[in-house]
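Q: What changes when adenosine-5'-diphosphate is included in the input?
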Amino acid sequence: MAILNINNVHLNVEEKQILKGISLSVNKGEVHAIMGPNGSGKSTLSYMLAGREGYELESGKVLFDQMDISTMSADERAKAGLFLAFQYPVELPGVSSMNFLREAVNSRRKYLGEAELNHLDFVKEARRIAKEMLIKDEMLKRYVNVGFSGGEKKRFEIFQMSMLNPKVAVLDETDSGLDVDALKIVSDGVNNFRSKENSVIVITHYQRLLDYIVPDYVHILADGVIKKSGGPELALHVERNGYAGIINAA
Ligand code: ADP
Ligand code: MG
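A: The predicted holo structure follows.
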């Protein structure tokens, strides 16, 4: 049974049709990569899944864990275990990273009927995972994403994901702006998170990331539709030959 089922989704942004009939089914434990040229609608798809205002469906349906997400607020989606890491992480001046994360973790735990973590246990867990992501304590004391470098923002997103343990994580260009060392840290974070119980959608336009996070399936998105799906070899084909051949053939 699919944990995430995107069925024939159409979506307009400011009256321009951006998603033109996307269908994608993700089962528990699978890692899917979505690749595609600039402007193909990848980030629009992630905003739609997150429930961002202005990204409501024109038609089609999305089921997350058997629930129709159009009936769920952004907050409810997050609590239910749908995690989005955006291409351009949002800065939250005045909101401490630790408090932000504790709130998010505890509201997810509450949703799951688990006891909230007390301050000490939370800090312990946060420090343990932060260390793996090479995130310094000092960074956790800062406001969310404020003054973080591009790479720090991306590492912080994966850190959040690890703390929240979502059912489905959608990572939009988490590799962009990372040097090789940071890319390795982020990929290790994703690979550690990977399990039979959860699923990942990695959005990227470089094949490079997929050397580190090896997907089960690769989809090529162009002009608001999935033009072709395949295995990891499809990403290598794109790396060698570009998108044009696939897009024209479709
Ligand atoms: P990708 O992430 O694949 O590069 P996007 O989803 O960001 O693509 O953008 C898809 C298309 O939507 C592009 O043509 C872009 O110009 C358009 N678009 C994105 N945001 C807006 C907006 N706020 N208003 C109008 N058009 C937009
Ligand atoms: Mg994008």
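Observations recorded in class: The pocket of adenosine-5'-diphosphate (ligand 1) is lined by residues 13-14, 16, 18, 36, 38-44 (CB under 6 Å).
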